[in-house]
Specification:
Layout (H helix, E strand, L loop, with lengths): L7 H20 L7 H8 L3 H7 L3 H7 L2 H13 L6 H10 L12 H23 L5 H24 L6 H16 L2
Helix pairs in contact: 1-2, 5-6, 6-9, 7-8
């Protein structure tokens, strides 16, 4: 059985659309960005855009796939290290002003936070399942997801001055304190 081939044109087109959206998002409120604006900036037609995305909200949700991939890679690279993927969260956010949209308010922030919250909850559930009593798992996942989002928000607002590894260590310590009996 062979692997499906990668359509390089589709990859280039999606990349152009992602870059166009990110560039527009830096200077305009989400609600002021139209699909036509994204297409114009990316140099693609509307039909091409809609061949890849159902709409602007779908595009925003799918932009998080790179983060999912980075978290999976970090987890695979360090299978014995607790919360190894957390550093990837901070590393992906470092130097990307477009991630500030998570905390800007409005529909863009609502969608972005929901995607990020769901992604972090999956990772935390996977990580905590073996060390947390089953009755407490959902509560601890919710608590630590909120903590990680708050820490990320603070870090970005502070100019992301501390290195991602330091932020991951801070989060690890806070979780380990919370897991103590």
């Amino acid at each position: 059985m062979s692997l499906p081939s990668i359509d390089r044109r589709a990859v280039r087109t999606r990349g152009a659309i992602h870059r166009a959206f990110a560039a527009l998002a830096l200077h305009r409120p989400y609600d002021a960005i139209r699909v036509d604006d994204i297409c114009s900036e990316a140099g693609v037609g509307r039909s091409t855009f809609y061949a890849h995305y159902a709409g602007k909200d779908d595009l925003l949700r799918r932009l998080f796939s790179h983060l999912r991939d980075a978290l999976a890679a970090a987890r695979s690279a360090n299978p014995t290290m607790s919360f190894a993927w957390v550093e990837a969260v901070f590393a992906q956010a470092a130097g990307r002003p477009s991630h500030l949209c998570l905390f800007a308010g409005g529909r863009r922030a609502e969608i972005a936070r929901a995607e990020l919250r769901a992604m972090l909850a999956v990772e935390l559930r996977r990580e905590l399942a073996s060390t947390c009593p089953p009755d407490d798992l959902s509560a601890r996942v919710a608590m630590n997801t909120g903590s990680l989002l708050s820490l990320l928000e603070w870090w970005l607002a502070d100019g992301a001055r501390r290195p991602p590894a330091e932020m991951a260590g801070l989060f690890r310590r806070s979780v380990s304190l919370g897991l103590a009996p």
